[in-house]
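quick one, 578 residues, struct below
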Amino acid sequence: MRLPRSPWRCVACLAVTAAWNLQGAVPPPVSADVIVYGGSAAGVVAGVQAARLGRTVIVVEPGRHLGGLTAGGLSMTDTGVKGTIGGVSREFYERIFRYYENPAAWRQTTRAEYLDWLPTHWAGGPKDKDFGRIQFVFEPHVAEQILREMVREVGVQVVHGERLDLRRGVRKEGGRIVSLTMESGRTFVGRMFIDATYEGDLMARAGVTYVTGREGNAKYGETLNGILPSGPAVFGKISPYVVPGDLRSGLLPRVDPRPPGRPGDGDHRQQAYNFRVCLTNAPDNRVPIDKPANYNPLDYELLARWVATMKDVQPAPSRIGDTALGGKERNIGISFHKMPNRKTDSNIGSEFGSDYLGRSYDWAEADYTQREALWQEHKTYVQGLLWFLTHDERCPPQVRAEMRNWGLARDEFTDTGHWPFQLYVREARRMVSDYVLTEHDARNTRAAEDPVALASYHSDSHGVCLYVDEQGRLCREKGFYVRTGVFGISYRSLRPRAGECANLLVPMCLSASHAAYGPTRMEPVFMMLGQAAGTAAALALDTGTTVQDLPYARLRARLLADRAILEWKTTPAPAAKH
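---
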């Protein structure tokens, strides 16, 4: 059977739908107390928590896999202050630690060799007396295996291959969601609903207020929001034209002909997406990386020109934090963050690397056909980058020699050609609720009175666009990576405004400005917010209240009883400087 080109289409779902259509029957509705739409790690945790509190739960996942990015290649977990990670989120990473205690889990190296090398920030045990038996690095398939064990243990029903009907999929009565209908015609009836997707499709179709893009700094009195100034001056040395210096030859791909606008103003743009690719240099587990059918050498021309400006470009794939390809000025290519069993989490992130600048703006509002095309476009670009680094003679021979040692891991992503099923959707829709997290929360100059989880990662946004300035120079609108404090995420940021929807919780596309979304979009935080959503859903059913009227004191007490961490000693962080 020929597999679909991407996880956005599920063969099994199509087969079941075709059978129903041949019979002329509408698939029977199924019901549960809590319907979770989205099988991300946050969605799994939300379902597990609600089930542990005595509620029936169905997790509806549009694709074929559970775990989202946690099982989709993001295997070197962005933790921030690891002591802030509690509850079911911490339990997941403790289970990772226990999995790798088994000698049978180590096929290409030993646990002792790996953990002796690995900094204690990513794995606890004897070397980490303060935090104990916890591990934040793992193979993708192990993450999904553990998440599947968690849902099985509590009887959460998981339904794969069902996508929300984007036109008529949400039925509401009296300000409450009654049911969700999928493209197949299948209907899920529930009393509480949780949107645990990266896109917020359920939230949007439920009529909840949201935004995309970047607010202007003036909106919330911020410094990091909106259009940013240009990045490093080194870009001005590189011609943005197909024929260097010849304006008539046209601009290279994804270079905008003019600046994005005035710094600090809001716009529609989103930070770039990419894939977290799992590579290996183990010969018996290595699959060669094919040249994409739609490979376009011009996609990598800027990178080639940048490499030509560098001296002493060398591979350095051995240590966490190193990049495989580095020159004295900047890194140029691909990270080799080491995972167990000689695998990597390769977040290919040079200035002209795997972040596919300019092609993320439309993802949030796109329909499934459009997202399928964008998914394929991102895959072609990132796969083509790997091919370029391995084969193109414009790359130094020592770089190409190193890259030939690496390939896709044969035992990962076995039903998607060993390519990650999850596109790294760093940001899409963001709800606008009664409490919008902003830079002021992240810098600890404001604190929510009703925290349900803590965020601690830096305020972080990747690049947005390349453009030509008024002098004809190539520029890159820079992202930001700014130190912030540990801060509480308000419960009000997880539920809509009163009157918009009384039984919906949104732990991933939560209410936050673009500037504050960076620290909250980390997978451990999403899982903690999933736990808060599952708890709130169960307690609202217990008390017969709306999600807006649920007493915070009751929610807080339950979260604390379940090992959530809601308080941290903080000091205000300095304002960001561009």
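The radius of gyration is 23 Å.
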